[in-house]
Amino acid sequence: MDTTVPEEIDGETAPPVAPRSYLREPPTTQRGARTRAALVKAARKVFERDGYLDARLTDITKEAQCAAGSFYTYFANKEEVLAAVLLEAQEDMLHPGMRRVQGTDDPYAVLEASNRAYLEAYRRNAKLMALLEQVAQVEPEFREFRSRRADAFIRRNARGIADLQARGVADREIDPMMASRALSGMVSVMAYNAFALAEPQEEAVDFEELVSTVTRLWANALRFPGHR
Amino acid sequence: MDTTVPEEIDGETAPPVAPRSYLREPPTTQRGARTRAALVKAARKVFERDGYLDARLTDITKEAQCAAGSFYTYFANKEEVLAAVLLEAQEDMLHPGMRRVQGTDDPYAVLEASNRAYLEAYRRNAKLMALLEQVAQVEPEFREFRSRRADAFIRRNARGIADLQARGVADREIDPMMASRALSGMVSVMAYNAFALAEPQEEAVDFEELVSTVTRLWANALRFPGHR
Amino acid sequence: MDTTVPEEIDGETAPPVAPRSYLREPPTTQRGARTRAALVKAARKVFERDGYLDARLTDITKEAQCAAGSFYTYFANKEEVLAAVLLEAQEDMLHPGMRRVQGTDDPYAVLEASNRAYLEAYRRNAKLMALLEQVAQVEPEFREFRSRRADAFIRRNARGIADLQARGVADREIDPMMASRALSGMVSVMAYNAFALAEPQEEAVDFEELVSTVTRLWANALRFPGHR
Amino acid sequence: MDTTVPEEIDGETAPPVAPRSYLREPPTTQRGARTRAALVKAARKVFERDGYLDARLTDITKEAQCAAGSFYTYFANKEEVLAAVLLEAQEDMLHPGMRRVQGTDDPYAVLEASNRAYLEAYRRNAKLMALLEQVAQVEPEFREFRSRRADAFIRRNARGIADLQARGVADREIDPMMASRALSGMVSVMAYNAFALAEPQEEAVDFEELVSTVTRLWANALRFPGHR
DNA sequence: GATGAATGAGTGTTCATTCAT
DNA sequence: TATGAATGAACACTCATTCAT
C-alpha cells in the first residue's frame, strides 16, 4: 500500500529512482537495445499476470522469445528487471499530467483536478501498482522504493496544504505534514481498493463518484470555507 | 493494507472467520491440545520474525520443540497454521474494547475514543497486522480474509455516519459507505505506516498526536458543527 | 603433492583435523547413521573415479541409492563430504603402524621400517592421496588440510633427525627442520609418482627397490657412519 | 608438483613441447600478431591471478581489450591459450642459464651452481609453476606436459650422476635413475613449497640457506668424498 | 579480422510433505 | 500421537562457444 496524493501545487520533488545497483551498462548495439526492451516488456506482462513471486525467469525469456541466458546479459536477477519495469513506468506514475486547470485559482477546482489526475494515473497502471504493493511486502529494496515514492507525493501535498493555510483557505490548526499523510493516504487506499484490488468480474466503482467523494472529504477535512 | 476504522456505534457485524477448510477436528487428548497450542504459538513467533514466506515449517516445529512430522497432525500446511494464528488474535483485533465513553453522547468524544481504541489495538498487534498485509499479497485466501475484516469495520462505521447524519451532526450530502471507505481507510493507512511499517530504530510517532489529527480530520470531513 | 615421511621415532603429533565447520550433528537414529555411512562410502568411490571437480552430487546419491535431497541431511556441500571421507581415512594415513622394529636400536633398520610403513600406507590410499592433491590445488580449505598433514610428518622426522644428531649418528652441520623438509619431501614425491600418478597400465615400480633407494639416500644424506 | 633438478652436465634433452594439436597457423597480418600476443599476455596475467579453473575467457579478452569472439580467431579453447602461455615461458624454465661454473671441475661447485640456477628459475616463474601444478591435476594433457618436463630434468641429472660414478665421485651402488628421481624430486618439492605455495604474507625462506641445504644433502646422498 | 550479443546445456540446493518406526 | 529421515520436483544461474554484422 502506498500513501500518495495528487500534486496540488508546484513541487519539483526529487523523483524516487531505483537503487544504483540496478543500473547497468546500457546495451551498445541496436540489437542489444531491442532485446533488452523485449525483456522489459515481457517481464511486465509476466509479472502482471503471475505476480512477482510466481514469475519464473524462463517465462520471461520465453515471452521475449530469447534464450534463458540472454536475460543475464541485461539483468542480474528478477529484482533488476522489475526495477527496470518500474523505472519505465515511473514517469507516467509520478507526474500525472494535469495542465488542464492551470488557469484557475479556485482551490477546490485545483484539488479536484489533482485528485482526478492521480486516480487516472493509478487506474492506468493499476496492475503495476498492485505488483508494487506485492513486491514491497517481500523485497526490502522495493519497500524503500515505494516509501520514497509515497513521500514525494506527501511532501508535495503538504506544501500545498501549507500554502492554502497561508492564503486563509485551510484550517490553520492542522499540521500540514500529518494532514497530508492522512489525506494522501486516504486517496491512495481508495485507489488501491478500487483499481488494484478489484477482481475483474467485480462491478467497477463509479469513477466520477470516487473523484468527487474524495475531493469533498479532503476539502472538508481542511475546512475549505463556505462551499456547497 | 487494510481499510478499517473503529466501531463508533453498535455493530453486531458478522466476524470474518478463517475459511471453513481451515477448521479441523480439535485434538482429543490433552497432550494433543498442548502440542497444537505450542505449534500455534511458535508459528506466530516465527511468522512475525521471518515473515510468512521465509518461515520454514521446520523452524516452527523446532521452535515448538516437536518433530517436523507432528505438524501435519494438526495442520495441512503453512496456510492453516496462519489461519489458526489469526483466529486466535482475531478477538482482540476486531473488538478493541472501548467501554470508556459509554456514558456520553458527544459525537466528537465518541469518535476520538473509537479511533484511540482502534489505533491501540493496531499497535498492540502491529507485527501481526504487517504479517497479514504480507500474506494478503500472496495468498488469495487471506486477501479475502483481510477484505472481510476491513468490510466489517467499514460497514460499522458507515452505520455510525448514517446515524450522525440522521441526528443532523454530519453532512447529509455525503454517501455514508463511500465516506466510511475513505475515512476508515485513512485511519488504517496511518496505523499501518506508524506501527506496521516503522523500523525498530525509527523514532515512534507521537501516539496522541496521531489520535487527535485523525479524529479532527474525520470530524471535519463529515462537517461536525462548530467545534474547536 | 604432500611432503611427508615416516615416523622415525616417537612423536605424538597433534593430528590435523578437518575444519570445525565440517563437523555436524551426527545422525541420531540408526537408519540415519546407515545413510550417512552409505553417502561417505559412495562419495569416496565417486571422487576416486571421477575426481573431485567432475563428481556430481547426484552421482553420489545415486551410488548411495538415496534421493538427491538426502545428501543435505548430512552435508552442506561437496566439500563437506570430502572432509568426511578424508577424516575417515585419516587414521590409516597418519599412523602407518610400524611396531615391527620396536626392539632394535639400529638407526638404519628403524629408518627403513619407517619408510616402508609410510610407502605402504601411501600405496594403500593412493587414489585418495591423488584426490587430496587435486583438491588442494582447488580448495584453499584442503590446501590447508594437506599442509597441516605434511607438517605433522615433517616435524616428527625433524625430531628424529635431531635425536640421531645427539647420538652422533647424523651429521651435526645439518639443520634438522630443513633437512626433514627436504628428505620428507623426497619420499613423498616418490610415493606420489609411484602410486598416485601412475596410470593403471604402467608397469609398477618395484616396491622393495623404492624402499631401499629412498632409505639409502636418506641415510647417506644424514651421513650415517660407515655402513655398506 | 614436479620432479626436477638442475642440469649438471650436458644434456641435449628433447624439450617437452605443448601437444601438437595446440599449434595453429600463426596469424598472417601484423594486427593479428599483436592481438594474439595481447591475448597470451592477458591470459598469463589472469591465470596467475585467478587460477586456471576460475579464469573466464571473457576476463582474458577483457584484459586484452578485445572482443570475446576474437579469442577464437587464435585459440580453440582455454587449454590452447594456456599451452601458448607455457610455451612462451618454457625457454626460461628449461634451460636456467648456468654458464658461470663452466670452467671448474669441482663436482660440488657444479652441483651447487646447478641447484642455484634451478631454484632461481623456479622463483622467477613461481606463479606459473603453481599454475602448472594446478592444471596438471585437472587436465590430462597438462599432466603429460608436466611429466615430460620433469623427466627431462630427471634424465639429465641421471646422466650427471652416472658420470660422477664413472669418475669415482659418487656412490656406485646407487641406481642413477632412481637416485635422480628422488633427488630431483627433493629439490622440486622444496622449490614448490618455498615459492609456489608460499602465501604473500609469509616470511620468505632464506634463499642461500635453501641452496646450500639442498646441495649438501644431494652431495651427501651420493656420498661425495671427504668434503666439509 | 573484429565485434559482442545470443545461445542453452548442465547442476546445486531448498523445503514442503510423506511414512516407516 | 510422535518422530525425524527420506523424498524429489522445481528453478536460477554460469559461461564456453557461435555467428550475424
Automatic annotation (TrEMBL), chains A, B, C, D:
InterPro entries: Homeodomain-like_sf, HTH-type_TetR-like_transc_reg, HTH_TetR, Tet_transcr_reg_TetR-rel_C_sf. Residues 56-75 bind DNA. Residues 33-93 form the HTH tetR-type domain. It comes from the Bacteria. The keyword Transcription applies. Pfam families: TetR_N (PF00440). Residues 1-33 are annotated as: Disordered. Keywords: DNA-binding, Transcription, Transcription regulation. Residues 1-11 have a biased composition (Acidic residues). SUPFAM superfamilies: Homeodomain-like, Tetracyclin repressor-like, C-terminal domain. This is TetR/AcrR family transcriptional regulator.
